[in-house]
Amino acid sequence: MKGNMTKIGLTTNMLISHAEKNHGQTEVLSVDVKGDVEKSTWQKVGERARKIASALDKLGLKKGDRLGTISPNNKEHLELLYAISGFGGIAHTINPRLFPDEIVYIVNHAEDKVLFVDSSYIAILIGHRHLFETVEHIYLMGPKKDEFAANMNGFKFLNDLTDDGDKNYNWPELNENDAAVLCYTSGTTGNPKGVLYSHKSIVVHANLVSLPDNFNLSARDSLLLVTPMFHVNAWGVTYASAMVGSKLVLPGPNLDGKSVVSLINNENITMSFAIPTIWEEVLEQLDKTGEKLESLDRILSGGTAVPEWMIRQFKNDYSVHVIHAWGMTETSPLGTANTPLGAHANLPKKQKIEKMYNAGRPNWSVQIKIVDREGIELPRDGESEGDLLVKGPTVIERYLHDKQSSLDNDGWFKTGDIGKIDSEGYLEITDRSKDLIKSGGEWISSLELEEIVRGHDKIHDAAVIGVDHKKWNERPLVIAEAVKGTNPKEKEILDFFKNKIAKWQIPDAVVFVDELPLSSTGKPIKRDLRFEFKNYFEEKKNG
Ligand code: AMP
């Protein structure tokens, strides 16, 4: 027998309608490239989103069409996010830091019909526009400058679309299982892979992150969202903030320590979201100026391991609680978050802080387990180390256009991370089995770098590994075996990467060895290399 409650589905429209009606005067702020703050409210964001949605409808776009965005976090991007999924389309948030060829690949793979491009990223279009196979319209975001428009043949402005829109547009009824947002994540081999969120998974996830033992969000909060919307769906904060009716601050393209600190203090921010690289810059800035963070209660740091010293420094010097979280694009993204249990209340301060170091406990919608090589579950004893598997309603089932499910027969998704789980259910990420390096929150494929360096005629074999780095968390290091009789220099090997990959993906250094350690299948044993060279950059810096 079915339940007798209404069949109203969970859709993103519910969230923006709620924020518009019930938190209409709560501020949504947006910072532009010059650092000027534009003030808006949830009511105005909702109205503009409906106007854009109606204009997209009029353009003839259909349910399920993909519409790409290339933009930093700003008000227009937020409005587009709600407008696109609101009329039934799919908002494809594109990472502008990718190599242009990769952007072309994902736009074509997603079959985007429309692109919305912030004026700070126009360079991406030049020289590549003709390669977009399915794009029918390109709209520029940002203020309309007619002179500029006249020189940009064939581009239109988002503001024209908004002006043409109908502010009385009613959100259509949508199926909660329909797709709403598309985010690409890096593949270990070959091309990026598309993760397609449904309306339901987004709403369930927004509810989840708002819970007290996750981000503890409420209408009293003022949130600074540094994590870009094109990464991990911005931890679901664009939706959770509408759900709880908090103030939302979107920082635009300038994410340096100085800009972030001044936004926190000027806008009375209570919680902010970013990767450790940004938080390190924030601490450096505070150190330099002696400023404090009076309003800031907690920060979310994840995407890579958060250094223990950072957790201590925020707590001891600024009374800011660091919530260390683990998640993936494929898990919506929140998997685990580190918040204390009642049983920790009477622990001494030092022990309490030590409890904050790991990646935390799973939330109700994500089951986690660690398994050995045969797939047998390992005990939760804080000692056994194995592959991390996850399962739940906010976890991916298959990648975009894949025929095959990404789950095992029992519905578990293999994360490519290695970890331990302790008796209280806390997860510690100890390593990664996927061949990827994460530098400043962005992925670099070690396999791609190896393929390039092996193409150099003085290189016999090479492995590329991620090595600890204070600022970027990890940076790529090449361990190379030269062809006998040649004597390659580090610089010529590094130069060889130029124009083949994005500049920031080029390794920082090359170490030449006589022989690489090889496994029985003839592949370099990277685990050994990662262990041996773990502190390479730190030791080099210290001479
Ligand atoms: P992405 O989908 O780009 O967010 O990347 C997800 C991956 O980032 C995970 O599979 C981990 O390898 C890594 N990651 C995320 N959070 C953490 C964390 N707290 N500690 C260590 N690695 C993390």
Task: Describe the protein in words.
The protein has 543 residues and is of the alpha/beta class. Among the domains are: 8-197, Rossmann fold; 366-433, Luciferase, Domain 3 (Luciferase, domain 3); 436-541, ANL, C-terminal domain (GMP Synthetase, Chain A, domain 3), CATH 3.30.300.30. 29% of the residues lie in helices and 25% in strands. The strands form 5 sheets. A 9-stranded mixed β-sheet has the order 2-1-11-10-12-13-14-15-16, sandwiched between helices. Strands 7-6-5-3-4-8-9 form a 7-stranded mixed β-sheet, with helices on both faces. It has a 4-stranded antiparallel β-sheet with strand order 17-18-19-20, with no helix packed on it. Strand 10 (222-225), helix 8 and strand 11 (247-250) form a beta-alpha-beta unit. Helix 1 (12-22) crosses helix 2 (42-58) and helix 2 (42-58) crosses helix 6. The longest helix has 17 residues, at 42-58. The protein is globular. One of its GO terms (molecular function) is ligase activity. It comes from Marine Group III euryarchaeote CG-Epi1. Residues 19-400 form the AMP-dependent synthetase/ligase domain. This is Long-chain fatty acid--CoA ligase.
